[in-house]
Amino acid sequence: DVKVTQSSRYLVKRTGEKVFLECVQDMDHENMFWYRQDPGLGLRLIYFSYDVKMKEKGDIPEGYSVSREKKERFSLILESASTNQTSMYLCASSSTGAGNTIYFGEGSWLTVV
Amino acid sequence: RKEVEQDPGPFNVPEGATVAFNCTYSNSASQSFFWYRQDCRKEPKLLMSVYSSGNEDGRFTAQLNRASQYISLLIRDSKLSDSATYLCVVKVGGNKLVFGAGTILRVKS
After folding, report:
1. Residues of A in contact with B96 (CB under 8 A)
2. Residues of B with CB below 8 A from A90's CB?
3. In this complex, do B101 and A101 lie within 8 Å of one another by their Cβ atoms?
4. pLDDT level of residue B1 (50, 70, 90 thresholds)
5. How far apart are CA A112 and CA A87, in angstroms?
6. Contact A111/A12 with Cβ under 8 angstroms?
7. b/e per residue B31-46 (b: at least 16 CB within 10 A)
8. Contact check, Cβ <8 Å, A43/B31
9. Confidence grade of residue A101 (pLDDT, cut at 50, 70, 90)
10. What beta strand segments (E) does A40-85 contain?
11. Contact A43 B32 (CB under 8 A)
């Protein structure tokens, strides 16, 4: 089975703190993604990466950065957390190709107070 | 206009009912289409891909209408365990997926 692992499931952080969300996949997928999901808005793409050290902005990159130093690992960084970044964050991976399935991690619930 | 639009529901149906969801997409160049299922406080999981000719998987049937730019999901003989949020997903180019906000289904006994 494909496994996408998000190491932190539930976090509470203070405004202004730096936050790291880690994601690891074990299927040698080229593509990795970070989404956030909020009620009524669905999943919105923050950043994605299609190769090591490559990254592209998604629809809502402001306030976030990412790092992909190894193929299996894709990190999301909140440089200075704000309350409007309270959300569920989902990491995903897929192989390259038109119909290839995207697999999600279990999600990280972040609350910024 | 959102790239992918779904009726948020909720659809409240009795066990055994047939229920259908539609989803419209705005980008005519969209390449691939999927339905994902998401249980409460869980991650989305692939339910089925949607093929041009339509496809069926047990009680679930998916259809694509490129001319009208919508896809549909039909669930027959609904079970309590079908209660979830159903996400319409469209691949618009490269590896970018666009998700609808989801349709909530509640199946009641």
Report:
1. 45, 48
2. 43-44
3. no
4. confident
5. 9
6. yes
7. ebbbbbbbeeeebbee
8. no
9. confident
10. 42-49, 56-57, 65-70, 73-78
11. no
